[in-house]
């Protein structure tokens, strides 16, 4: 394209003798005037600019269906769109592909491409990846807003049991919903800590008591505290299971499986203690009980339910499987190589500690991870040189993938905070808009919106936010137009 000076449309004969390929059109997008030629635009006849070439013969109705304004004196088409995005989009007519410039909102750029009727397949792969990431973020924000609005909504057609079930679920699963729910969350957190402390303190010999058969057992007081904690965990799990909207999904959720593993050993060991002695030897019962009591350590993972930091760490590790795989691969190769070399080099020494290559694996592991217990060590000069090289390679192998893993954690943590803030911002905009629409109060309006939202895939089309560039199209079925001159936040 080129900047327009005093260019004018050539006179078009009424019989259409001039071919559209020889025409030039002047387009003014956001105050920037540019000239295009029909032979370039007609390469993609489905686009809006290509349709402008043939719209003059259709009259003003055809013209104004394609542009915002038209000056017949200057023969100039006007568009109230983003000129920066337009400069990127028109590259398709000259290069066959489109790249987004840095600083342009991907969602707004996608909307611009839809307006100019340019297919997304012309967008370069690197830009598509950025667009997909932003779409996932908007879907996550929409999901969070929907969950909050569902909590605010009260369906009059629901039975009393359904309403009670929903209240119990909010009370136990969503501490931010009310002050009593926050108190329950704090109590649950304290019970987890108390139970974990009791489990540790109960292993101190000075605090244990001896039964009639001479076996050491936990102090009765600690046992009573343990029973009270298990009773709380059991009641909490049963109430959450009863009030769960999807019980199958609830039962197979990872954190709920952890809850079962934290509760189940107590009841199994109690059953074996009272009934198992009649079915098997007493020693076997005691061994089974001790093995089950060790499983109580699973309750410490219950802290992840109340800690956003632990949840973020879990999700970040899931996103870092590739880096963790590289770390394990580096270590596995190094362990195999250096253990084999260590075994070979140490065979010449009469008092060698390297009896076999599999036994040397242990030495290679503690050496490459720079632990060095000293239970197995080389005694020859070549063996010591091999050990020095092994722990240097171990430091390098561990250090290389650590930085990407840390970056994944920081990126995911910051992203979750941004999404949470964006969801709250959308709710504030909805509340402000509903307050302007109805003087009866924003809360009742949100409840009406949440009830109507159940009829559609996300929300009713009545939900309208302000003219903010954080507007989520997933929250409304109607097209929400903004001026293209607004900047993207």
Automatic annotation (TrEMBL):
Gene Ontology CC: voltage-gated potassium channel complex
GO MF, one example: voltage-gated potassium channel activity
Bilayer topology: Multi-pass membrane protein
Biased composition (Basic and acidic residues): 8-20
Membrane-spanning residues: 183-204, 248-270, 324-341, 385-406
Annotated spans, Disordered: 1-20
Coiled-coil residues: 415-452
Keywords: Cell membrane, Coiled coil, Ion channel, Ion transport, Membrane, Potassium, Potassium channel, Potassium transport, Transmembrane, Transmembrane helix, Transport, Voltage-gated channel
Residue ranges constituting the Potassium channel tetramerisation-type BTB domain according to the UniProt record: 25-126
Domain Ion transport stretches: 182-416
InterPro entries in the record: Ion_trans_dom, K_chnl_volt-dep_Kv, K_chnl_volt-dep_Kv5/Kv9, KCNF1-like_BTB_POZ, SKP1/BTB/POZ_sf, T1-type_BTB, VG_K_chnl, Volt_channel_dom_sf
Function noted in UniProt: Regulatory alpha-subunit of the voltage-gated potassium (Kv) channel which, when coassembled with KCNB1 or KCNB2, can modulate their expression and their gating kinetics by acting on deactivation upon repolarization and inactivation during maintained depolarization. Accelerates inactivation but has relatively little effect on deactivation. Coexpression with KCNB1 or KCNB2 markedly slows inactivation.
Subunit structure: Heterotetramer with KCNB1 or KCNB2.
Similarity field: Belongs to the potassium channel family. F (TC 1.A.1.2) subfamily. Kv5.1/KCNF1 sub-subfamily.
The protein, known as: Voltage-gated potassium channel regulatory subunit KCNF1
Gene designation per UniProt: Kcnf1
